[in-house]
């Protein structure tokens, strides 16, 4: 294969998304033929490329994607400097496997992991707008009302810029919230801004893929139909969507209204 930009090659090899690969290079964690790599550098099949000293197989591995029920207490990272349990501890040893996006340590639910850098880019880049749906249990005397949650849909100001929910509805002891983006602890911060701090938070859907009946720590490999449903929810038959939503409400509590 002819020379290719290093960050693209790392993504194609399943190391990380292109954007994350650029950050690895900027951080000085990538070497080419024993020399610290530079952003925009070209590489070919004969080059010795290493990340954190580990040799990278530049040919693309067979891609695989998993849905994991991330338990509370696990961090969403491939490497943790503090030695905390990370999501890869719960997964098979697959070269290049990495989490897609993040789910904070105190939250739980659906997390995708893959060694497909192109899929990671598709699922994490803001321009694609894949929905993420959450069930929150709030603390305090009363759960948020629909009038309060409508504020989230209209949009609120946060310290890292305006934030807006695609939809939000009250539920038993909390709320269902759907976002089109995924900033750090966003659902928690949005509900706390309304005066409703979150005690428990479960992500039950990403795109058109639902958590289903997975339990904490369990995972399953996604097949072609799952990936189609994940990436193109509008093509999913309505009966499948309605069934997944009913299962979610049975498991996490009926929505009011």
TrEMBL record:
Keyword NADP included in the entry's annotation: no
SUPFAM superfamilies (alphabetical): Alpha-L RNA-binding motif, Pseudouridine synthase
Enzyme Commission designation: 5.4.99.-
Domain RNA-binding S4 residue range list: 4-60
Transmembrane segments: none
Record GO biological process: enzyme-directed rRNA pseudouridine synthesis
Gene Ontology molecular function: RNA binding; rRNA pseudouridine synthase activity
Enzyme class: isomerase
Keyword vocabulary terms for this entry: Isomerase, RNA-binding
Keyword Transport: no
Pfam family, one: PseudoU_synth_2
InterPro entries the record matches: PsdUridine_s_RsuA/RluB/E/F_cat, PsdUridine_synth_cat_dom_sf, PsdUridine_synth_RsuA/RluA, PsdUridine_synth_RsuA/RluB/E/F, PsdUridine_synth_RsuA/RluB_CS, RsuA_PseudoU_synthase, S4_RNA-bd, S4_RNA-bd_sf
Family from the record: Belongs to the pseudouridine synthase RsuA family.
NCBIfam families: pseudouridine synthase
PANTHER family hit by this protein: PSEUDOURIDINE SYNTHASE FAMILY PROTEIN-RELATED, RNA-BINDING S4 DOMAIN-CONTAINING PROTEIN
Protein name per its UniProtKB record: Pseudouridine synthase
Organism (species): Deinococcus radiodurans (strain ATCC 13939 / DSM 20539 / JCM 16871 / CCUG 27074 / LMG 4051 / NBRC 15346 / NCIMB 9279 / VKM B-1422 / R1)
């Amino acid at each position: 294969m002819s020379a290719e930009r290093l960050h693209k090659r790392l993504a194609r090899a399943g190391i990380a998304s292109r954007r994350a690969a650029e950050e690895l290079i900027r951080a000085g964690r990538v070497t080419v033929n024993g020399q610290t790599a530079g952003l925009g550098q070209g590489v070919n099949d004969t080059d010795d490329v290493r990340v954190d000293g580990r040799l990278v197989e530049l040919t693309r591995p067979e891609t695989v994607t998993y849905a994991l029920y991330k338990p509370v207490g696990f961090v969403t990272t491939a490497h943790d400097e503090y030695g905390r349990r990370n999501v890869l501890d719960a997964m098979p040893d697959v070269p290049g496997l990495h989490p897609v996006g993040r789910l904070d340590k105190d939250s739980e639910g659906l997390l995708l992991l893959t060694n497909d850098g192109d899929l990671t880019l598709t699922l994490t880049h803001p321009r694609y707008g894949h929905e993420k749906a959450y069930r929150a249990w709030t603390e305090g005397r009363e759960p948020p009302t629909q009038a309060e949650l409508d504020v989230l849909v209209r949009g609120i100001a946060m310290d890292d810029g305006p934030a807006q929910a695609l939809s939000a509805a009250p539920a038993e002891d909390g709320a269902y919230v759907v976002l089109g983006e995924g900033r750090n602890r966003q659902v928690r911060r949005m509900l706390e801004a309304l005066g409703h701090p979150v005690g428990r938070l479960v992500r039950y859907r990403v795109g058109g893929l639902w958590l289903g009946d997975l339990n904490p720590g369990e995972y399953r490999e996604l097949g072609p139909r799952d990936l189609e449903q994940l990436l193109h929810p509008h093509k999913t038959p309505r009966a499948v969507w309605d069934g997944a939503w009913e299962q979610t409400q049975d498991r996490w509590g009926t929505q009011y209204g």
